[in-house]
Specification:
Blueprint lengths: L4 H11 L3 E5 L3 H13 L4 E6 H21 L4 E8 L2 H9 L4 E4 L6 H17 L3 E6 L11 H7 L3 H11 L3 E4 L18 H10 L4 E3 L7 H9 L12 H9 L2 E6 L1 H17 L6 H23 L6
Parallel strand pairs: 1-2, 1-8, 2-3, 3-4, 4-5, 5-6, 6-7, 7-8
Helix pairs in contact: 2-3, 2-12, 4-5, 5-7, 7-8, 9-11, 11-12
The structure holds glyceraldehyde-3-phosphate, 1,3-dihydroxyacetonephosphate (13P), sodium ion (NA) and zinc ion.
Cofactor: Zn(2+)
Protein name: Fructose-bisphosphate aldolase class II
GO molecular function: fructose-bisphosphate aldolase activity; zinc ion binding
């Protein structure tokens, strides 16, 4: 069933588990996400970036909505990193049930102002809103606390931001970063900060940049002819702990990009004569499904729907 972000994330925050919010860009990715959620009785969020909207548009949004309507588990269609009021309203017009306004690059007052406008419009239409406070980016273990404070989310500011905007859920900067290169070895996650922010606020918290960049997938990527540098993601134990202490929405894009490319590369490498797209993209879908299943297990959302 197609539901709002709140419908999925409020129970997750209360039940101390996380829900994956996976980026989609085509039919196979969407099927891997929603069919795996259905099979595992897990709630799930499917998100499209502005780039995904440019690429797949209403066609792709309709595929997501159709699969969501036919699923018996809760599915939300969410705008990832909406860059403006216009972008958020456009997504709502396209049938999204949840939107992110990312005005985190503005100063505090500017972020509040932009976010508030979107909250007012979206709430009038029953749509939930995610916003972001702080600057995402990896933090090195040796960085002193003062320097961390310059870009990680400040707990007192988070309380004021939520009060002043009415945002439904809040993305916080706690050490994660986008992409396949999140730091050398195991990226540092500021668990004390998550727990402090969660203790001072009541709404679901969001972790962007939460791909695990599994080492077996990286090895298969290389074995099938792919080239990639020092790839590293968020450790399963770090995500597990974060979801038990307030993180309810967990954003994953990179892991599906890697998994689908591994599937395609392996088919093409093993069977050079193959040119049936169903064999090629079907294999990509299978590898993505395995990665999604693992993630839902880590987050604790399996069996929650
Ligand atoms: O946070 C960004 C997501 O990974 C989406 O990336 O804008 O290339 O679709 P994209
Ligand atoms: P990853 O790059 O870790 O998959 O993060 C995706 C994300 O945060 C999308 O908003
Ligand atoms: Na988002
Ligand atoms: Zn993000």
């Amino acid at each position: 069933m197609l539901v709002t972000g709140n419908d999925i994330l409020i129970p997750a925050r209360a039940g101390k588990y996380g829900v994956g919010s996976f980026n989609t860009n085509n039919m196979e990715i969407t099927q891997a996400i929603i069919h795996t959620a259905e099979r595992l009785r897990s709630p799930v969020m499917v998100q499209m970036s502005e780039g995904a909207i440019k690429y797949g548009g209403q066609d792709l949004a309709n595929i997501v909505k159709d699969l969501a309507h036919r699923a018996t588990v809760p599915v939300a269609l969410h705008l990832d990193h909406g860059s403006s009021y216009e972008s958020a309203l456009n997504a709502i017009r396209m049938g999204f049930t949840s939107v992110m306004i990312d005005a985190s690059h503005h100063d505090f007052a500017g972020n509040v102002k932009e976010t508030r406008r979107v909250v007012e419009a979206a709430h009038a239409m029953g749509i939930s809103v995610e916003s972001e406070l702080g600057r995402l980016g990896g933090i090195e273990e040796h960085i002193v606390v003062d320097e961390k404070d310059a870009f990680l989310t400040d707990p007192e500011e988070a309380v004021q931001f939520i009060e002043q905007t009415g945002t439904d859920f809040l993305a916080i900067a706690i050490g994660t970063s986008h992409g396949a290169f999140k730091g050398k070895g195991r990226p540092y996650i500021d668990h004390a900060r998550i727990e402090k922010i969660a203790g001072m606020t009541g709404i679901p918290l969001v972790a962007h940049g939460s791909s695990g960049v599994p080492q077996d997938i990286i090895e298969r990527f290389r074995a099938a002819g792919g080239e990639i540098g020092d790839a590293a993601g968020i450790a399963d134990e770090d995500l597990q702990r974060a979801t038990q202490f307030g993180i309810a929405k967990v954003n994953v894009d990179t892991d599906l990009r890697l998994a689908s490319t591994v599937g395609i590369r392996e088919v093409l490498q093993a069977t050079p004569k193959e040119f049936d797209p169903r064999k090629i993209f079907g294999r990509a879908r299978d590898v993505m499904s395995q990665v999604i299943e693992h993630k839902m297990g880590v987050l604790g959302s399996v069996g929650k729907a």
